[in-house]
Amino acid sequence: MASADLTSTLESFIGSGWLEWTGVFTGILCVWLAAKNNILNWPVAIVNVSIYGLIFFDSKLYSDMGLQICFILINGYGWYYWSKRKDKTQQPAPVINISKSEIIISLISILLLTTVSGFFLHQHTQAAYPYIDSFCTACSLVAQALLARRVIQNWLIWIAVDFIYVAVYISRDLKPTALMYCIYIYIAWMGYREWKKTYIEQT
């Protein structure tokens, strides 16, 4: 029985479409580039979220699909912000710690987005997990906005939400995507450590 389950899992991985595997590759690449403070993470991220917008629509994860549209806008801003110079030197915008006001705004944003989006999806769509999906979407938007501003703590939010995403995607039979999010957890931890080191070197 265990052998049969393993064979079925492997067949599921191998049988996943090329679109999902392309999304997995570009997703891992863009997060790795972000952890390395490389500006190329933004154009790669735009390609990635465009792919996953299609995948999530097909899987009826509508909140995640809408998230990808928001990500395109945030990624465009992040690309601009990271390439913007604070002065005439070649130094990019610095890595910073989260402020008290950002903590408050982030918590309120997550609560409101989860409640409003979750209620709408529950009432008007066939979304698989309306409130869990909405919570992950809200956390992801906040984390991505903090990433665009080079706030260190964006990585801690990503670590927490990625654990939830792993369970959601396994339940929706998106196993390669679930594997990708397991890798995201490791890269996010690496990104947090590297950004913290950069922050200390700046001060």
Q: Which helices and strands, and how do they pair?
A:
Elements: H1 2-15, H2 18-35, H3 41-58, H4 62-83, H5 100-124, H6 130-148, H7 154-171, H8 175-202
Helix pairs in contact: 2-3, 2-8, 3-4, 4-6, 5-6, 6-7, 7-8
Explain briefly what this protein structure is.
With 203 residues, the chain is mainly α. It has helices spanning 2-15, 18-35, 41-58, 62-83, 100-124, 130-148, 154-171, 175-202. It has one domain (2-84, 94-202).
Brief descriptors of the model:
0% strand, 80% helix, mainly alpha, disordered N terminus, 203 residues
Q: Could you give the distance between the termini?
A: 57 Å
Strand-pairing-aware structural class: mainly alpha
Strand content bin: under 5%
Low-pLDDT windows of residues: 1-15
Overall domain count:
1
Helix content: over 70%
Number of helices: 8
Envelope shape: globular
Largest sheet: none
Determine Rg (CA atoms, Å).
18 Å
Q: How many individual β-strands?
A: 0
Q: Could you state the order of secondary-structure elements as H and E?
A: HHHHHHHH
Average pLDDT number: 84
Structure write-up:
The chain has helices at 2-15, 18-35, 41-58, 62-83, 100-124, 130-148, 154-171, 175-202. With 203 residues, it is an all-alpha fold. Helix 2 (18-35) packs parallel to helix 8 (175-202), helix 6 (130-148) runs antiparallel to helix 7 and helix 7 (154-171) packs antiparallel against helix 8. The chain has one domain.
